[in-house]
Amino acid sequence: MRCPRINLFSDAGEPLKEFTLEGRGSDKILLIPMHGIITDTPKERFLARSQNIVENVVSQLKKAEKDDRIKAVLFEINSPGGTITASDLLYYEISSFKERTSKKIAVSMVDIATSGAYYVSLRSRQW
């Protein structure tokens, strides 16, 4: 009988997984999926805790900030929105990332992007 693998820590320390979809060269575009309800409340599972959308996005943006080969970030949004606080945190984090790095931000709205999800996507607009 095999014991289930239990991860006691969040995945924030895991490296980003890279896939070459097309092309050659060293420049990269980071795809960050934002699926589900936007919340800053931890997802509790049996004997484990997984990252919520805010933690996941922030940890990936911090890693992307250190990678000079990432030239743009593409958010794939499929969300009905979420809490005001979590949506505002994401808006602020994305805005801060954009100002610190000058990297391009783009959004792909998949099935639904309402309320807080739409608010977060506004930051992709070039002023």
In brief, what are we looking at here?
With 127 residues, the protein is an alpha/beta fold.
Task: Explain what this protein looks like in three dimensions.
This protein has 127 residues and is of the alpha/beta class. It has one domain: 2-enoyl-CoA Hydratase, Chain A, domain 1, CATH 3.90.226. It is built from three helices and five strands. The strands form two sheets. The protein has a three-stranded parallel sheet with strand order 1-4-5. Helix 1 runs parallel beside helix 2. It is globular and about 40 Å long.
Name the features.
127 residues; alpha/beta; 2-enoyl-CoA Hydratase, Chain A, domain 1; two-stranded antiparallel sheet; 3 helices; globular
Biggest sheet record: 3 strands, parallel
Task: Give the CATH H-level superfamily.
Answer: 2-enoyl-CoA Hydratase, Chain A, domain 1
**Taking all residues together, what is the mean pLDDT?**
83
Supply Rg.
16 Å
**Would you count the extended β strands for me?**
5
Shape call:
globular
End-to-end CA span: 58 Å
CATH topology: 2-enoyl-CoA Hydratase, Chain A, domain 1
Which structural class should the secondary elements be placed in? Answer: alpha/beta
In the CATH hierarchy, the architecture is: Alpha-Beta Complex
Per DSSP, the total helix count is 3
Helix % is: 25-40%
Strand order of the biggest β-sheet: 1-4-5
**Count of individual domains:** 1
- Helices and strands, in order, run as EEEHEHEH
Give the percentage of residues in beta strands: 25-35%
CATH class: Alpha Beta
The poorly predicted ranges are: 6-12
